[in-house]
Structure formats: structure tokens, C-alpha cells
Design goal:
Layout (H helix, E strand, L loop, with lengths): L2 E10 L2 E3 L3 E5 L2 E6 L1 H7 L4 E12 L1 E6 L16 H8 L7 H14 L2 E7 L8 H15 L2 E5 L1 E2 L10 H6 L3 H4 L12 H15 L7 E3 L2 E2 L7 H14 L3 E5 L3 H11 L3 H7 L7 E5 L5 H10 L2 E4 L1 H6 L7 H7 L3 E3 L12 H12 L11 H8 L1 H8 L16 E5 H5 L13 H8 L5 E6 L2 E5 L2 E2 L4 H11 L12 H11 L8
Parallel strand pairs: 1-5, 6-7, 7-8, 8-10, 9-11, 12-13, 13-14, 14-15
Antiparallel strand pairs: 1-2, 1-3, 3-4, 5-16, 16-17, 17-18, 18-19
Helix pairs in contact: 2-20, 3-4, 3-19, 4-7, 14-15, 15-16
């Protein structure tokens, strides 16, 4: 059955229109235009919506880890990234299917129907079996996934100068460390796993799942591995996503290792192009921004995570002004541990517009696109028909509760349409997400999933958590902090 979805206001290309409705047939939008025109052309179509709603394209979460439960709730307090990572190994494991199912349900309730998932293996030896479970979890929730199985091949303990770090560790801590910190599959095994996943799950027609490649971070991956990853993706018409320049010490690593910045190094080895998305990019430099824009590489911005892990403030307004495609990601680490995508958009917008009259502006229109069409393009590719209210697009739609978001105090004709992008960014949150459609199917109605009870999933997660007693912290944190403090003034590698 065809369905006409209409609302008081509709969002497209970052701007709100007062008379834009869509007609959905199957998984796609088949027509878009004035409500009266659509009802005339499709008189038998079901009609959903009304003046109490705002219609927007569903959002894409451009970078996440699908943890289901916040790391703080599982005993890992926030800290500098390098210190925080050293403790993640002691988190209790959550079965990948349940983790992605719960994460997908949370995202849907926030108006998100697509996610770029950077997988954190429960066990590296089970990577090949974990990825299909995670894909199935998102599928059962009803969320599209760009799946990134990770690969690393260097520098997991510290970014460089491993022997110097070991030298000032107490003997009892050093004795507990493995001789090698390499825990991932070797490259040949990894790409064999990736080939199998691509053959069995990659869906370039309906875009339910994409298999992409993820050299996990520039400091953790050798040049040959990064080059091979980019070649693998380009040969198959898929994408690469990497963590990049999340902290000051990753930027210092590049200078210590090559005498130049990270993005310049990626360009030198042919690893910078429009197939690439870089997550975080907090410590990017001005000339790197120009190079990103020139090469068409995307950036997934994760403001909450960057704040919680004390990484810094990415120059988002400058990137957008330069033409870098920037999308918004939650990183599974939002300020309130609630995966509220709309609050994240508000936080991004607020912090990106910095003090000083010379600072560039990030407009509300641009921000809506960063959560929609741009995030979809850097996650699933520019050809994926996501993030727009137009004929031929996949019918991923959200109806927001306009009456509740507006409040009762303002006049009936307030605000004017030109102010709507800003007005809504200041007010809207996940509680205002009433109905969500993914591929022509309503999955969230009146704020609740129509097929899955999220509370049942939560109960099963807590029953299945693999706690193994009160495992002590790694005790590496204080020594890592001393080690990287030395880097603040370092100018050259010591080995």
C-alpha cells in the first residue's frame, strides 16, 4: 500500500518547508511535493502525520561501537584515551548479537536508522563469527549498518618507544605483560575473513548492510596494512573508516615518526580519497583540512566522546567551511550514556560556534545535514539514497512531535520558518521522536518499537554479562600518563 507522510513542516537539504510531503511505495519514496498534489495523484494512499508533527529524513550515526552498555556502568571510568583504552580489556563481555540489537533499538528511538559500526571484538580469535552476529542484531532491530571489522598490527601498548616505557615500569607490572601486544589476526587471515563477509553480507542494492574495512587507527597500523586496506575497498567499491588524530599524542606520534602531520603521510602513501572516513580528527591542522577537502575524505565528529575522554575540540566549523564532508557520530559514548542523537546535534552546534568575532560560523542548516545526508554519504557512500526527502530515496523517515517540542507558551505562528532549524536544534531531543520508518516500514510508533521490547533485551544483557569477579584495573594508567607527558616537549623519536 502507498503511504503519504505529511507534517506541518518538513526538512530537506537542511531547510524546513511548510508544504513538502512524500509518498512511499515499498521501500522507497516515489514522489515528493505539496500534500494536496500528492493526495490528488494517489487518492487511495494511506495518510500518516498531520500538523502536530515535523517530518525529517532519518539520521545516520557516522561512528559508533555498538557497546549496548556504557563503559562507565561496566566499571571503566572516563580518562584520557590512552589510559582509558588500557582498562577496556577488563570489561565484561556482551554477546555481539545482544549488544548490536540493543544499540540498534536505542538508535531507532532517537530517529537513527543507519549506523557505521566500528566493531570491538569480545575475542579477537572469534572475529569471523562475531561480525555476522552483530549484523544480525542490527537487522533484527531494523537498523542499516556499515560494518567495520578492525585490524591492527603495531603499537598497541604505546604508540612508540615501547622499550623506554617498559624500562620505567615496576618489575611486577612488566612481568604481567605479554611478550608481544599483538592480539589481532594477521593481515592475510583478516582479509580472508573480510572477503567472506563481503560475499555473504554486503548489500549495495538495498543498503541493509555494507562490509567495509577498518585499519583501526593510523598509529596502530603500518603503512603496508593501510595501503592494502584502501586497495581492498577500492577494488570492491566500498569504504574505509579509521580512527585518526583523536588525541594530541597521536599527532605527536606522526611528527616523531615521519617529521610531518598524519594526513600528509596518508596522502603520501595513496591512502587519502573520497572512499575514506576518519573518525574524531580533533588535532587536525590547517593544511591538513585543505588536503582533506581537496581529496574528498570525510570526517566523523564525536563531540561527547571527545569531551569525556579529554581529547579536545575539533575545528568543525573550519572543516565545513573548507568543504570537508563532516558527519555526526555518537561513538557509543554520549554525555548522558543515552545515545540521544538529537542532543548530540545540539552539542555539536553549540561547541563548534566558538567565541571570537573572527571565528567561522556553523549554521543550523549545515548541522541538520551533518546528521542526515552528509553522515549517510560518508558512512554508506554518496550513491546510497539516504538522508533526503525526494523521489528515489529510501523511505527512512522520522515524525517529530512538533506540539511538544514547541511548548505552549509561544504564539501559533511562531517561530517563522526561517528560524526553524535553530529553534528545533535548541529544543528537540529523543523524547520528541514519535514515529520512525525504515525502508517503508514503521518500526517506532508512539516512541516504542513495534516488534521488539527493549526492556526484555536489557534484562537478557544483564543476565548474560560475563563478569568474572572484581578484576583490578591494569595499573598502567599512572605510568602511561608519565610516559606521554614526556612527549609534550619531545621533538624526535628516541629509538
Amino acid at each position: 500500500m502507498q503511504t503519504i507522510v505529511h507534517a506541518r513542516y518538513s526538512l530537506n537539504n537542511g531547510a524546513f518547508a511548510q508544504d513538502l510531503s512524500v509518498c512511499v511505495d515499498g521501500e522507497y519514496i516515489v514522489d515528493a511535493g505539496a500534500y494536496s498534489d500528492l493526495t490528488s495523484r494517489y487518492p487511495e494512499a494511506e495518510r500518516v502525520g498531520g500538523d502536530d508533527y515535523i517530518l525529517v529524513p532519518a539520521f545516520t550515526n557516522a561512528h559508533d561501537h555498538g557497546r549496548a552498555v556504557g563503559t562507565l556502568a561496566l566499571g571503566i571510568p572516563d580518562d584520557f584515551l590512552e589510559l582509558w583504552l588500557s582498562d577496556l580489556a577488563r570489561m565484561p563481555g556482551i554477546p555481539p548479537y545482544l549488544a548490536s540489537l540493543h544499540s540498534g533499538l536505542q538508535l531507532l528511538q532517537s530517529g537513527v536508522t543507519a549506523v557505521a559500526h566500528s566493531h570491538n571484538p569480545v575475542s579477537w580469535t572469534d572475529l569471523a563469527s562475531e561480525i555476522p552476529q552483530a549484523i544480525r542484531g542490527y537487522a533484527d532491530a531494523g537498523v542499516r549498518v556499515a560494518m567495520h571489522p578492525p585490524i591492527v598490527d603495531q603499537n598497541l601498548l604505546v604508540y612508540a618507544e615501547r622499550e623506554r616505557f617498559l624500562d620505567f615500569l615496576p618489575a611486577y607490572i612488566r612481568a604481567r605483560l605479554p611478550e608481544s601486544d599483538m592480539i589481532a589476526p594477521d593481515a592475510d587471515e583478516y582479509f580472508a575473513i573480510l572477503d567472506d563477509l563481503y560475499d555473504n553480507f554486503h548489500d549495495s542494492a538495498r543498503h541493509r548492510a555494507h562490509i567495509q574495512v577498518s585499519p583501526a587507527g593510523g598509529q596502530w597500523c603500518s603503512d603496508p596494512l593501510i595501503i592494502r586496506a584502501c586497495q581492498w575497498a577500492q577494488e570492491r567499491g566500498t569504504r574505509v573508516q579509521m580512527h585518526m588524530l583523536e588525541t594530541r599524542y597521536q599527532s605527536i606520534y606522526a611528527r616523531k615518526t615521519w617529521g610531518k602531520n598524519f594526513i600528509g603521510r596518508l596522502d603520501d602513501i595513496g591512502a587519502l580519497g573520497d572512499w575514506l572516513t576518519l573518525a574524531h580528527m580533533v588535532w587536525v591542522e590547517d593544511d591538513e583540512i585543505e588536503l582533506l577537502a581537496e581529496r574528498g575524505a570525510g570526517v566523523a565528529h564525536n563531540i561527547s566522546s571527545n569531551l569525556r575522554l579529554r581529547s579536545g575540540f575539533a575545528p568543525i566549523a573550519e572543516m565545513v567551511a573548507a568543504g570537508v564532508p563532516v558527519g555526526i557520530g555518537l561513538d557509543g559514548h554520549t554525555l548522558d550514556d543515552d545515545q540521544d542523537f538529537l542532543r548530540e546535534m545540539r552539542l555539536v552546534w553549540t561547541i563548534a560556534n566558538r567565541s571570537g568575532m573572527a571565528s567561522p560560523d556553523l549554521s543550523a542548516d549545515a548541522l541538520w545535514n551533518m546528521g542526515g545526508a552528509v553522515a549517510a554519504a560518508i558512512s554508506f557512500g554518496a550513491d546510497a539514497p539516504l538522508g533526503r526527502l525526494e523521489a528515489g530515496g529510501l523511505a527512512d523517515l522520522v515524525l517529530l512531535d512538533w506540539a511538544s517540542a514547541k511548548g505552549k507558551w509561544s504564539p501559533a505562528d511562531y517561530p517563522p520558518a526561517a528560524l526553524l532549524p535553530e529553534f528545533l536544534l535548541r529544543r528537540i531531543k529523543r523524547d520528541h521522536v514519535r514515529h520512525v520508518m525504515r525502508g517503508g516500514e514503521w518500526l517506532i510508533c508512539d516512541g516504542e518499537h513495534v516488534n521488539v521490547d527493549i526492556e526484555d533485551v536489557e534484562r537478557e544483557i544483564w543476565e548474560r554479562l560475563e563478569f568474572e569477579g572484581e578484576e583490578a584495573p591494569s595499573q598502567l594508567g599512572s605510568y602511561l600518563r608519565r610516559f606521554y607527558r614526556h612527549w609534550d616537549d619531545a621533538e624526535s623519536p628516541s629509538e
